[in-house]
Amino acid sequence: MDYSIADRQMSIMDKLGILTDAAKYDVACTSSGNERKGDGTGMGNTIKAGICHSFSGDGRCISLLKILFTNECIYDCKYCVNRCSNDVPRASFTPDEVCRLTIEFYRRNYIEGLFLSSGILYSPDYTMELLYQTLYKLRREYNFQGYIHVKAIPGANQELVRMTGFLADRMSINLELPTAEGLKKLAPNKHRKNILTPMRLIQNGIAVNKNEVAVYRHAPVFVPAGQSTQMIIGATPENDYQIMSVAQNLYDKFSLKRVFYSAFVQVNEDKDLPALPGGPPLLREHRLYQADWLLRFYGFRADELLDEKRPNFNVLLDPKEDWALRHLEFFPVEVNRADYQVLLRVPGIGVKSAQRIVKARRNGNLCFEDLKRIGVVLKRALYFITCSGHMMYKTKIEEDYITRNLLAVKEKLPAEAGGMTYRQLSLFDDVRFAPQRQEIRQAAGMAY
Q: Helices then strands (H, E): number in the chain?
């Protein structure tokens, strides 16, 4: 089959260099949520804790073999480095090449799974069929039983998406931009309906398949690790309230596992793209991830964190601290009596520490020293809690006073844009060992 209009004589290593670099801006490559084990007849497995991740300095996941099948694309999205109007080196793998790379790198412990996305080669159906063929070969012919995350192609035949779902652990469809208006402006070839249709298909397929597996023990499993999506942040003028409302809607209506927020990186010059004199909006991305955590694990709703009058997050305080300061009428909380959901709303108390508090206080009242051992961050929590009716220190339940003290507690924030690099780490990056090209080929057991 003619897979690409690119140079067919290009070596697989050259393709790997181009197509790993082309995939570096896609951040939605988490692998948690699946505990399927290998059956002993093939290679690899995936457990509930997911793949052991490594992360680059800007938070991008590097532990999977993260590649595009092709960076050829018929679309001309203004924010994308792989858009058809860009003069960039183009390459495409064949299904067998992706399988060989995955197996050889897995055998040598370079990777623990595969994250496979793609540009649109010729048409959505054509591209989706190639992705399906790749996963089918990897599972059935190469007996790979490790983790696979694949991107579904919006607009592709639904049966192809469905069949691919029985071969993947996780699937995702990029929402691209938070609103349909932004999509129309920056990605005129893409349509919200084409994105949401396969998202709904995957959601319904997961629900139906759970019932089938419950009845028929050996029924094939459909997308066992669920689905996720990604939004580019800062390319269009939506505020944080709009973005979090979209995320809340996706969690509620499509049962997504994760929504990823990718700070806009200006790789193209275009009049419709914003100027970023300060670099990518990494602090904003950081705040959105913190708020997303509150939606998924802490019982918050988007409209509790922000509203139309206050549409953006506080750059100085994390969203949970900011919410607490605006709702001081709920504090202080007595840790020996408050229920679990109330404890989750206290700054400095996380999911695990709240669970430990509920469990430990069955044996008697807790003191501040107990809370410290449990894992509560007292330098944040002390303004919002009491133990047996007493606060840790004499303090004021006053917004300005607490704000000044919280600002004195340094928060770990993303690196400044000036010190960042957007080069995705390769499989062979190691400060102790920098093999030459021929050594890499030999290590992979391939002849080029």
A: 16, 8
